[in-house]
Amino acid sequence: MIRTNLRPRVALAIASALVTVLCAAAPYEPGGDSATSNAHACKADESWDNAMSMCMPSAGPGGAHTVVSGQFNVFGVFDVAQGPRGVDQFGAPNMFMLDVGRAVTARQFLDLNLMGTAELWTYPQRGYPQLLQIGEQRSDGQPYLDAQHPHTSPIMGLTLSDTVSLESSETLKLFFAPRGESTDGPIAFMHRDSARDNPDAPLGHHVGQDVGHISSTVLGGQLDLGQVIVEASAFNGTEPNPTVVDLPLGPLNSEALRVTYLWTSADRVMASIANVKQTDPQYPGTTSATRLSASVYDHISLAEGGSRDHTLIVGSITRHPTDSPLTSILDEAVLQRGTSDLWWRVEVLQRLASELEIPTSPLPEASTEVKHWVSALTLGYTHWSWRYRKVQVGLGSSLTMDVVPSDWASVYGSRTPLTLRFILQIRGSGSWQR
Predict the structure, then answer these.
(1) What is the pLDDT averaged over residues 24-32?
(2) Which of 1, 189, 284, 324 sits between 20 and 30 A of 110, alpha carbons compared?
């Protein structure tokens, strides 16, 4: 059954406006990265999350240098899922980023970054359909089950940063965000090169992976030593409500540390730890949580043309005071050749029956709920059928096979329910400077 309570015209209007603005702001020829194509060459991260202006252009003669850049990624997805918990439904994951930076001196760069989405209005009321996915609550107080929650709309992140050049390539950045990214977890899924064609959030999103990419009241710093990057932050551990339009401030009651080592400009390894003060209605008695992650990113340029981007992530979360760790593992990649992208994702993680509201026998007093391993294997293909400057339109499809324990088979209809998705994707980027 297809839900009709969406507002696709909102998403279409936003996408149309972004296409118009970014086309006008992108007068250069296709083929160059929006950050590294700057006339003022600056140190830029080539990954999808930092392809805007995470760099420090030099001040021009007699004045400061300003860079305005942006990007967007909009999906229209119709999925057909098997089993009693599967639905045939449309959803539209989307995000946009706008970045304004100004070099006030040759050594100091001020930056304001906005990350937004319209998912509150482009997702079905029950969330974007995704078997085995959990996290957050709907506006009626019910948890999102077998569905991905919308991200906080319209503001996912608003970050003000001040970057100072130290010596040679070394920089120190201080930042504040009423809503932004805590310095833990891997690169968020919506910004990874290896996931650029995949509209689905990882099942391990809340299992020690990238849930911290939308945190409240973040205050932090980053020391970039060239090959080693150290980041630390304090933030509010209460996750923003995805169904409320607000931008609240809260006490800094949580902390995170992340270290990145770059062995080449395109390849890196990352590890993080976070102590998060939180209460969670889905886990009564929870007072805090420890999130751990380790991740590896690599990029290969193929001799015959094209490229491969790959990510491996291990995440873990321990909810205190009584819980034991839950673990998630993800491996994903995209193989690009010409106008074709072949992409895949393999996930193995632990889930609790109570998280998915699966009926079980009552536990004996003081017993710990059994953790079950589940898996999801996704294979997708996208053909980029049209391009104008930095705007691209792709058509694709994906097939996901979930694997559940035998005692969950009656709930999902089989041990290996399938989900087929038909995908329209529009993405683009652009920059302006003076």
Answers:
(1) 30
(2) 189
Dihedral of alpha carbons 416, 419, 420, 426, sign: negative
How many Cβ atoms from other residues are within 10 Å of residue 126's Cβ? 18
Looking at domain 8-433, its CATH class is mainly beta
The Cβ-side half-sphere exposure at 109, using a 13 Å CA radius, reads: 28
CA distance 95 to 246: 17
* Whole-angstrom distance, CA of residue 240 vs CA of residue 138: 12
pLDDT recorded at residue 242: 93
- CA dist., res. 98 & res. 112, Å (int): 8
Nearest-angstrom CA–CA distance, 136 and 178: 20
> So where are the chain's domains?
8-433
Give the C-alpha separation, 136 to 122, whole Å.
Answer: 17
* Residues 333 and 310 sit within 8 Å (Cβ to Cβ): yes
What sign does the CA torsion over 50, 275, 179, 57 have?
negative
Distance CA 2, CA 23 (A): 34
The rounded distance, in Å, linking the Cα atoms of 22 and 28 is 12
As a whole number of angstroms, the distance between CA 424 and CA 416 comes to 26
| Placement of tokens 């409240």 in the chain | 216
pLDDT of residue 278: 86
pTM for the whole thing?
0.85
CA pair distance 69, 85, nearest whole angstrom: 41
